[in-house]
Amino acid sequence: MRSLFRYPAWLLLGGWLLWSAPGRGQCPPLPELARRFRASLNLPDSVQFRELRALMATYSRCRRPSDSLYANIHHKLGKLFYQQGNIAQAIAYTRRAIALRKGKPAAEADAIASYLNLGLFLGPSTSASLDAYRQLIAWGQEHGSVLALAEAYSELCYFFFEQGEYETAIEHADLALIHARQLSNPLITVGALENKSLAFKSLGNFSQAKLALEKALSTAYKYNLPVDKRASLHVNLGTVLGRLGDNQGVVTQYEKAVELYQQSGNSEQLARVLNNLGFHYSTRTYNYTKAISFFEQAIHNYRDPYSKLRAYNNLGATYWYDRQFGKALDAYQRGFEVLGLGFKARDRSQNPPAEFMRTVIRKEYLL
Prior knowledge:
By secondary structure, the chain is mostly helical. About 75% of the residues lie in helices and about 0% in strands. It is built from 18 helices and no strands. Helix 5 packs antiparallel against helix 6 (about 110-120). The N and C termini lie far apart (about 90 Å).
């Protein structure tokens, strides 16, 4: 039998070091790993993905203990897998991030983000996503996190809205509001009020929907939330006022939204509101001159061809209502030409072929 004592002591010691700590010279300290992780967050997604996988390999090679940084690497990889369309891996990595944090100190925002991502990845209306949000409630109660409870109840409000359980959605919106107000968190407050208004609208209670949106707008202006958020609230309030028969209120809210979207430079949303204004004047107050003006402005601002086609369709219908049949046909023709599908005929007796019509049909959403 060979004896280890046949070799010099220095060789034995060196061999033991190499065996017990493979690649020790290539094992960076934790601060260096944390620095690399933070730096990776500013990289393009494909490069970030490779860097995070390399950090995981370093953990494995150096036999590092699973700590909060390792959990954060899993969390970020889960998000990147989701963006790549690999939902199974996104779910697996996010669940692993949650598991790695159990029983260990974890940053509140990191833990909440993993539960919220898991709910998203599992699907907005599935029992599994419901379970993820309930797990977040349990985590929040265990760790005394008011933010976790506010976020979870807000997500559950939307979950139950999607399920058609509107009363339950309103109950969860109120729970979200209670916790959000403890934190003076305007984003969660406004989100919960928006969701509450959607539930009230679905129940046909437009007065309560109006009240919720007015509170959301007041909060949005008080805390100077982003311009586009305030604009979308004005649009939603205008829609509710339309259901209440307040035609002047509709115009006031939409015009405010137009002003805000012009400030932000969001041309697609600006065009959508202009299109809605045209639709309102065309079908609610029958002011065809104003309707035509707003549809033309919407056409000018839309970039998406199908959205532009929808505005041309509304323009044509308005000319038709106003008995300007030649201009109506011209608007419809201009709409076809936006799509570049080759229908050039302007003879009023010639209709597009059936195959062409099947190509251009798109479901229309108005107001």
